[in-house]
Design goal:
416 residues; Aspartate Aminotransferase, domain 1; Aspartate Aminotransferase, domain 2; 2 domains; 7-stranded mixed β-sheet; 13 helices; 17 strands; binds pyridoxal-5'-phosphate; pyridoxal phosphate binding
Length: 416
């Protein structure tokens, strides 16, 4: 990569003007990012950052990747949007790629993670009413500390009261269990079963992302699969953050040795171009024309972008890079964690989704580390108040992992 040659970035950007017009829904860091290349970003003051956030596990190929640039350029000149009233060749091609590279048989396209989960919730409910023949009240079990999105149904699915507060009444038909706890889920299924009210699905992340980068435990997930096989309950994996190579496998479920019945994907699927997908096994594909739809869902532009991302992952052997760079990163993080063993208590993750947990007794918060690292030129994201999250683009190099780790080490030394 050539050195940063930025001609004009003094754009006169004003945070005050921004805040005057944009609704105040995000706690934003006080920088405006203007340009990117690979794993590097530049703000409006020309300050350079190493990007270990990747738009929150979204910019799979980093920024301005030639394959994505070429695909979007070609597609926008050809045809960018057409209604699902018609066949869309790119949508069919993308669905085939996904089916050929996953345990799913069918795909529905939408535009975001929350929407993919909404589609899964609707599919579960229709399956419960028509196949399981529950008369009235199918229940979906989700995990505490989970995250499934910001629509009404998905904040209800999200097992964290802070996302639900002041938005009641919530959507009925959800119950929560602690993550990775076999006894709790067995008890919940027994407790809920009562006449018309029964568990129809378990909706869960193979590794909890927002909830603190917590990997699923093998034994727990084997048991979930067994429970679902024995009872007809559907197993839904929210892979919005873990899918598309992020964990070192194409899909997060491959780390757990089981196959879910329904999978949702979004974030990294088109490398930052908005897209969502809900995939399922043929056995639970109960949707018929009129049941579900999306104006933008699966349009030629989004699908061509996703195809470019997926083909690049394959062609450039990115899964191998994710595994190697993930190992390298965790080794460095563990060394830092051991050096400051009164501050850090855990380093965990799969592939390039990793978390470093701060001791509850330590004064330090994840936000403080993120802010100081940003000053030092490294972008990180919190995953809760005590976990620092590392989700760089899947193209990240060995040098960049070392550089990021060096900056983190310096940052920690400055904070304590
Ligand atoms: C980000 C995320 C979502 C929500 O995705 P949006 O595109 O923001 O709607 C849902 N589930 C998980 C696991 C996520 O990480």
């Amino acid at each position: 990569m050539t050195t940063a040659t930025l001609e004009t970035t003094k754009t006169g950007f004003s945070q005050d003007t921004f805040n005057q017009y944009v609704m105040n829904t995000y706690g934003r860091f006080p920088v405006a990012i203007e340009k990117g290349e690979g794993c590097k970003l530049w703000d409006t003051e020309d300050k350079e950052y190493l990007d270990f956030v990747a738009g929150i596990a979204t910019c799979t190929l980093g920024h301005a990747h030639p394959a994505l640039v070429e695909a979007v350029t070609k597609q926008i000149k050809k045809l960018h949007h057409i209604s699902n009233l018609y066949y869309i060749p790119e949508q069919g091609e993308l669905a085939k790629w996904i089916v050929d590279h996953s345990c799913a048989d069918k795909v529905f396209f939408c535009n975001s993670g929350a929407e993919a989960n909404e589609a899964a919730i609707k599919l579960v409910r229709k399956y419960a009413h028509t196949v399981l023949e529950f008369l009235e009240q199918p229940v979906i079990l989700t995990a505490k500390s989970s995250f499934h999105g910001r629509t009404l149904a998905t904040i209800t699915a999200t097992g964290q009261p802070k996302y639900q507060k002041n938005f009641e009444p919530l959507v009925p038909g959800f119950e929560y269990v602690p993550y990775n706890d076999i006894t709790a889920i067995e008890e919940a299924i027994t407790d809920i079963d009562e006449g018309d009210r029964r568990v129809a699905a378990i909706m869960i992340e193979p590794l909890q992302g927002e909830g603190g980068v917590r990997p699923g435990e093998l034994e727990y997930f084997l048991r979930l699969r067994k429970i679902c096989d024995d009872t007809g309950i559907l197993l839904v994996f929210d892979e919005v953050q873990t899918g598309v190579g992020r964990t070192g496998k194409m899909w997060g479920y491959e780390n757990l040795g089981i196959e879910p019945d329904i999978i949702t994907s979004a974030k990294g699927l088109a490398g930052g171009i908005p897209i969502g997908a809900m995939m399922c096994k043929a056995s639970c594909d109960v949707f018929e024309p009129g049941n579900h739809a999306s104006t933008f869902g699966g349009n030629p532009f989004a699908c061509a972008s996703a195809l470019a991302v997926l083909q690049t992952i394959e062609k450039d052997n990115l899964l191998q890079n994710v595994q190697a760079r993930g190992e390298q990163l965790r080794t460095r993080l563990r060394a830092i964690s051991q050096k400051y063993s009164d501050i850090f208590i855990d380093v965990r993750g799969w592939g390039l989704i990793n978390g470093m947990e701060i001791n509850n007794n330590a004064e330090l918060t994840s936000i403080e580390v993120v802010k100081k690292a940003m000053e030092n030129g490294l972008l990180l994201a919190p995953a809760g108040p005590k976990v620092i999250r590392f989700v760089p683009p899947l193209i990240v190099s060995a040098e960049e992992i070392d550089q990021g780790s060096d900056i983190l080490e310096k940052t920690v030394s400055q904070l304590i």
